[in-house]
Amino acid sequence: MIAVQVENLTKELGGRLVLNGISFDVHQGEIFGVIGMSGSGKTTLLNHLIGFLDPDEGEVRYHSNRPMKGTKTELEQMRKNMRDVRRMFGFSPQTPSFYPRLTIKENLTHFGVLHKVDRKSIEATSAHLLELTQLEAHKNKLAEHLSGGMQRRLSIMCGLIHKPEVLILDEPTSDLDPLLRDETWKLIKEINKLGTTIIIASHFLEELERVCDRVAIISNGTLLKHGTLDEIKKSFAKDAIEIEIDTKPEYVKVIMQHFNKRNVDAIRREEDKVRILTKHPQEVLFELARMLRSGRLHAYSLEVHRPTLREVFEKIMREK
Amino acid sequence: MKNIAYIISKNLKLLIRSRSSALIIILAPLLVILLLGLAFDNANIFGLTIGVYSESYGPNVDSFLTQLYEKELRVIKYDNQEKCIEEIKTGLTNTCIIFPAELEFESNEQKKITFHVDYSKINLVWMIMDTLNVRFGTSSKEISEDLIGVLVNKLSESQKELEDKKAALSVIRSETLDSQGKVEGVTFKLKGFNFASDNATFNVSGVEEQINTVKVNLTKHLDDARKRVSSAKEVAGNTTGIGEKLENALNDIYLAEEIIKGSTPPSFTRIETLFGTLKSNLENAKLQLQEASQLRESATPDLDTVKEQLDESLASLDNVDVTFNSIIEEIQSIKVTDPEAIAQPFITEIKPVAAQSTYLNYLFPSLIILVVMFISMLLSTTLVMMEKHSPAYFRNFITPTRNITFIIGTYLTNMLLVGIQLGIILLIAGYFFSAEIVPSLKLSVAILVLAATFFTLWGMVIGYLFTSEETATLATISSGSIFLFISSVIIPLESMPPIVRNIAAFNPFVICERVLREVILFNPQISVVADDLLLIVSYSVGLFVFILASQGFMSRHFVQRLTYHRHKRQREEMQQREQKHFDKMVKKVVKEKLKEKVEPHRHHISFGLRIGK
User: Is A99 in contact with B563 (Cβ distance < 8 A)?
Assistant: First the structure.
């Protein structure tokens, strides 16, 4: 079931087309990743999702499974009524978005009140969120005194205090060290398990690959691909296999010259590594073995694996 | 309503938790009013330092200086006029008074005392002028009184002298009158004298002829007698006794003849001589009479002239008398004879329509509106900017809470804080001027609330319009300064060009200050100030509507800019971090790989290298 429907979203800012007819659906209960290079339009897209920016063309529709006043036809009217829509989603922007001089509890209460949640519900939700984020012991600490990871968790909590159906996260793990990033992803997964649909924009592709059910790849405001990870990888690599050869720099050139477009879909050089993407792995591996035997090639290691999201993304970007 | 209450409580918490801003926001206005109060409290002017210079510091100059010392003014004597003036510029003294070489008033020459002041220090100049003019005015008045006292005494003495001399004038007049009478008498008498004389009148020749006739006749008769006696004697011859007797008669005749003819006295010759003398004397007398007559003829006009002159003198004396009388009357008609009253006929007494002790009483409304203006504007701008720059602003913006809730929350927070501060100020003020404030407390508070509302909303407009805290604060202070300068607080509005006065009539600061002053000093009915209050209310409504209409757009614009810049900055930082991380990882991997892979295969590598060669 569709939670958020984005249709032909187009926006021009400062004479530049920052979103160009973007359309995708976000399904209820899934984790949807938005990936793209810096300046590709991820944050602008999210700003449209939260109603902060109005599109020049197209629209964003939120579909609620909560009992609504009126009939379904009134959803259109509800879309126009941003105050109602704003109750449906929670948002955690890229930068901390809470009062540093209020405690965790005060911040949660403040945003709960602003979302018109009654005090009892705020108390209950706060307790649950504090437990979920393991910040109960720090609930009376001023936000400015919290660590970076705690602040990030508080920011997410503030977006969840009114129990939104959709949680939108913009770069939730930027500025965090790897351990904190892991914790944050764990938290996101747990929130998702509770039934909240999550839309994440991030540039940590490996991490997105681990948590997202579906992703949308954006470049220069244009949606390049969207779908499940497998769908994207398949559409990109068409069952291609990647062979990674770790060797000395002087042999990289030899490999590049030897495999130039022969049984190879793509070949990429990374200093002392060569990555070969091929739909004919057997032929390629045979050739490599021959080269090793003949002494034309020396290699420290040779790995065979399917392409990662990063690789697919990089490939797409290069093609673009 | 619950939301508004929570926003207010959140705002207060944020303000209180930022200790420095809390201190500044809460204590600064109190400090400002304290300082302003001290600055404008003119009960003591001991802060003034007066430089003085005189070519010669005589007793009169010292007397002036003593007066200044008595008023607790600090006085520095200079022996150089340039230095005295120069030190005003450096701020060592507030004014330089140049005394003339001598202050004695002995001629019509006025004594000039020059004050050198620095007009750039406007308030100080007024204070100096006020203070020193009073001191020197007093001294000048005393001198004037002394001088007028001398004049009045002289006048009084002159009057007395005139009255004394008036008696003498009467004596002179009566003597002159007497003289005039005498002159008239003399003239009359002179005119009555008959100096006419002629020979016929005296008949000297007749007398002479008669004498000659008598003499001739006597001589003839005597001669006859003698002849007869001589004949008788001859006849009587020797007859005893007769002859003798005849002899004797003859002798007598001879004697008589001798008397008539003889030259020895008594003789007729002598009579003739005497007669001749008499005649000559008569001739002389006649001549003299003629001269006298001539003299009288010539003296009579002179006497007439004298008489006329005496008449004139009398007339003059009468005039002098009239003049004397007139002068005396004039002097007597002078009713103001008190030198103090003449020196200062008008005692200008400025009576306050309200009780006064210091300038502070009059300045209090201005000061309190000034404080309300600045704290309301600064506080509201700070609150809006604090909110705008808060990391939570964006999140607030996307909540379902309406903009008006935030606006009202900010406004009420501000009003609450201003209210607390005003409460403290009014409590302190009440302690000092309870008599003025208490009767009009309700209306005063209403005006202050209106003033605080207007300036709070003004500050909020600035807060919403400007992006950075610095420019917003600058704009707040600038607009506050404009309000202040186009008012009577620094320079009287009456001294400003008409166009500025017209603008000032609509200056909310001027309106609030004027209304509060009226209310505190005169406690009028609300209807008297209703128009002004309505104007402030309409200003406030206008501002509120403007905020409401523009806040959404301005906030969205601001957040867009803010997020854009934050995003850009973050991206740059992220790229830098990634680059750093990547470099670090590459180094680490290279190192590890070298350790793990290169070392065990050293031989292969060397071999490979060899082969490669």
Answer: no
Under DSSP, the state recorded for A103 is: B
d(CA B433, CA B445): 15
Inter-chain CB proximity A113 and B390 less than 8 Å: no
Q: How many CB pairs under 8 A join A and B?
A: 107
Which chain A positions have a beta carbon within 8 Å of B396's beta carbon? Answer: 114
Phi then psi dihedrals of residue B52, to 5 deg: -130, 150
As for the ipTM of the complex, it is 0.74
Position A42 confidence tier, pLDDT thresholds 50, 70, 90: confident
Residue written as token pair 């006043």? A69
Q: Is B597 on the interface with A (CB under 8 A)?
A: yes
CB-based contact B448:B368 (threshold 8 Å):
yes
> Residues B98, B100, B105, CA angle at the centre, nearest 5°?
140
Q: How confident is the model at residue A66 (pLDDT cuts 50, 70, 90)?
A: low
Q: Is A302 helix (H, G, I), strand (E, B) or coil?
A: strand
Residue B332 three-state SS: helix
Question: pLDDT at residue B45 above 60?
Answer: no
Model confidence pTM above 0.80: no
Interface of B with A in 559-578 (CB under 8 A): 559-560, 563, 566-567, 570-571, 574-575
Tell whether the torsion through CA atoms of B408, B414, B420 and B424 is positive or negative.
Answer: negative
**Position B9, amino acid:** S
Return the residue matching tokens 């681990």: A210
Query: A108: pLDDT confidence band, cut at 50, 70 and 90?
Result: very high
The answer, for A100 touching chain B at a CB cutoff of 8 Å, is: yes
How many whole angstroms separate alpha carbon B304 and alpha carbon B307? 5
Q: Please count the other Cβ atoms lying within 10 Å of the Cβ belonging to residue B439.
A: 14
Q: Which residues pair with A304 in a beta bridge?
A: A243
| Residue B509, min C-alpha distance to chain A (Å) | 35
